[in-house]
Every structure is written in C-alpha cells, then in structure tokens.
Amino acid sequence: MMEWTPRGRRDPAAVSRGDWGDDDMRSRFQPDRQLTARMGLTLFLLGLLYVAFVAALIVLLKSWVLVVVIAAAMLGAQYWYSDRIAMYAMRGRLVSREEQPQLHGIVDRLCATADMPKPRLAVSDMELPNAFATGRNADHAVLCVTTGLQRRLEPEELEGVLAHELSHVAHRDVAVITIASFLGVIAGLIVRFAFYSQMFGRRDQNTAVVFLGVMGVSALVYALSFVLIRALSRYRELAADRAAALLTGRPSALASALTRLESDIARIPTKDLRTAQAFNAFYFIPALGAGAWVGRVFSTHPTLEQRLDQLAKISAQLGRPA
C-alpha cells in the first residue's frame, strides 16, 4: 500500500475515503498546454464581451444597479450550483458503493492511478447512453452516467469513458465551460425577458427602441459566445480522449466505446434526443450529431472519424493494435 509522500501520492483506500491534502489539484492525467491556452483565450475574449454586454445594457436600460446585480447573481448561481442544476436537469441521483460497486471500483482505480480526488458518483435512469462531469472544481465534481450507458458497455469500455470524464475534471475545463456558458445563458434570458416585457408592457416609441436595442445586443452576444464555446468544446473533447487513452493505456477500448455508442444513439428516437441536446457540451458523445459542414463548425464535439483517428495514432505510439 502506498503512503503519503511529499509528491502527494496516495493509496487507493485514501482515494476511496476521499482523504486529500492541500496539493490535490495536480493529477497524473496528461497535461495539455494547448487546451490551457485555448481556455485562457476563450475566457479572456468572453470577459471582454461580457463587459461590453453589461455596458451596453446599462446604456440602454439606464439602470446600472439592476443590470450589475442581476448579472452578478446569475453568474454566482451558475458557478456555485452548476452541478446541482445539471443533476436536476438530467434526473441524476448520487449513488453509494453498495448501489453501484462496479462504478465505484472503476473510478477508485482511475483516481488512484491519476492521483486525483474522487468525485461524487451519480446515475441517471435514462435510456440515452451517455456520461458527463460537472462541478466548479475537483473537490466539488460530480461524475454521472446513464443506465443506458452502463448496460451497453463492457468494463474496459466503461473505464475508458470514465477516464475521459475524469480528465475533464483534472484539466479544469468543466469549470471553464460552465463559466463560459453563462454569457450565452444570460443573453438568451434577456432576449426572452425583453420580448415578454414588450408584449405585456408599454408600447410607446421609446420602449420599442430600447426593446430592439436590447434584443440586438443580446442576439449578437449570444452568437459570438456560441461560436467561441463550440470551438473550445471540440478541442477539449479531443484532449480528454487523448488523456484518457494515455492514462488507461487502452485507446482501443475507448475507440470501441465511441463506435458502439454512436451506433446505438442513432437508433434512439429523435424526439427523445432533442430533450437532451441542450447538454451536448457536457456529454461524452453528442445526443444529436452534426451532419453538414456548417453543422460541424457549430458542433460541440469533433466528428467520430477525428476521434477514432487520434486514438489510432495513440495506439500506434503505444505499440498496440488500433
């Protein structure tokens, strides 16, 4: 059994108990400097956009207190309660070791190998085969899988998917995506608020001008944030695939899981997939894939071919069959 050392190595029992020191934020997942740089650039650009957005709303609504208070409250709520919001939306529930011994066992081994805190584990009783990680940092992360995913995958494939989701937590891109998504969310809500206030409020000329101004600014902000988040999301999925394959040493298992899930999702009724599409950016595999070239540009995930090609290259590097 491994003991505590200055480098922070931990024994599997400590991982299972959740006993962690102050230097827990580093893990043995393969670091990705490009991902870190992209996250920093995305947050910087979205920050500038956010400041401009708030300034424009203050000018239009002539009430800086109202705008700032609402924006700050919504940002705080999304940051602190993102895990609860996602769990509620996906009907996920936390599960104990007694309820899900296989799930806990796999995550215990992966966290011990990666030298990282063990997240809380949850299961969603959905037929959609998928998984996602959420939470503002490694100490408040939740990893959720659906029963449809568990039923379809072999243990080695499930391990690859879980390693993929754990790498999102280790790379901190879960928190970045959560914060980055905030701007698009608030812009969309303001568009709805402005629309309904115009429908049921006063309809004089000044009100109409303010209404059109708010709608135009919000729509522009939503579009720009949408493009920036999608670009980051596609790269972070490739980074997570790469890190998971290198950690487990079995890129072929992850490739098999991707192929199997892509095929199975294609057989699920479209109306059921559309209800889950809003959470595509957090999923292991998108509920609805992108078909045309324009669709792929705005997709949250790279294509299956891109992901399989990367895993095949990693297999070749490791000297193992793809």
UniProtKB/TrEMBL annotation:
Membrane topology per record: Multi-pass membrane protein
GO MF annotations, alphabetized: metalloendopeptidase activity; zinc ion binding
Residue ranges the record marks as coiled coil: none
Cofactor(s) required, per the database record: Zn(2+)
Binding site for Zn(2+): 164, 168, 237
Enzyme class of the recorded protein, top EC level: hydrolase
Family affiliation: Belongs to the peptidase M48B family.
Family annotation (Pfam families): Peptidase_M48
Residues spanning the membrane: 35-58, 64-81, 174-196, 208-229
Record note on cofactor: Binds 1 zinc ion per subunit.
Intracellular or extracellular location(s): Cell membrane
Active site: 165
Protein name: Protease HtpX homolog
Species of provenance: Streptomyces jeddahensis
Protein keywords: Cell membrane, Hydrolase, Membrane, Metal-binding, Metalloprotease, Protease, Transmembrane, Transmembrane helix, Zinc
